[in-house]
Amino acid sequence: MKRPYWILIPLILGFTSCQFMEPIDANIETKNVDVTLNDIIGTWRMDKFSYEYLSEIKNDSIVLTFKPNNKFEMNNSENLFDREINNRISSGTWEIFDQYGTKKIKLNFNKTNNTKDLEIYKLKNHYQLWYFLSDPDTGERIRFMN
After folding, report:
1. Looking at the DSSP assignment, which residues form a beta bridge with residue 44?
2. 46-50, 82-86, 87-91, 138-142: the lowest-pLDDT one
3. Exposure on the CB side of residue 42, measured as CA atoms within 13 A
4. Is the pLDDT of residue 18 over 60?
5. How far apart are CA 120 and CA 128, in angstroms?
6. Nearest C-alpha neighbor of 130 from the set 44, 26, 55, 18
């Protein structure tokens, strides 16, 4: 009787792809994160790993500031989410919303009427804001931490 070893290949690939359906760090809470406006208010810096996916500028000068009146400022414009750093100040409004069990922040940019959604994750007592530049499995993302 022949053994169907060929069946093992798709199973192995399925279990090893997509980090086995978990985030990169299994301790990061991605669903049903308990967050309030006060948890978000303040200055957030982009982590050093995120600069790898942007332009040639490699430093840690990109900040996103959330204000109590649901306004925000970012020191590099909304083009950041299109992999471009142009060092212009952009501003707009923000709000927290829930989509499919994931908490998100909607950024509404004033000048362009453009919107971007940042996913809210939590690792222990620290929140993180993620924006995926492409398929999340590629790891190409922008992450802000406060």
Report:
1. 64
2. 82-86
3. 13
4. no
5. 6
6. 44
Side-chain-side CA neighbours of residue 86 (13 Å)? 11
Neighbours of 67 (CB within 10 A): 13
Question: Would you give the distance in Å from CA 146 to the centre of its chain?
Answer: 13
Judge whether residue 101 has pLDDT over 80.
yes
pTM to 2 decimal places:
0.77
For residue 88, the model assigns a pLDDT of 82
Confidence label for 58 from pLDDT (cuts 50, 70 and 90): low
Helices and strands in the chain, H and E counts: 2, 8
* Cα 77-23-45 angle, rounded to 5 deg: 30
The structure tokens listed for 53 are 């996916």
Measure the CA–CA gap between 130 and 16, rounded to whole angstroms. Answer: 23
3-state class (DSSP) for residue 51: helix
pLDDT over threshold 70, residue 15: no
* Residue count (the chain): 146
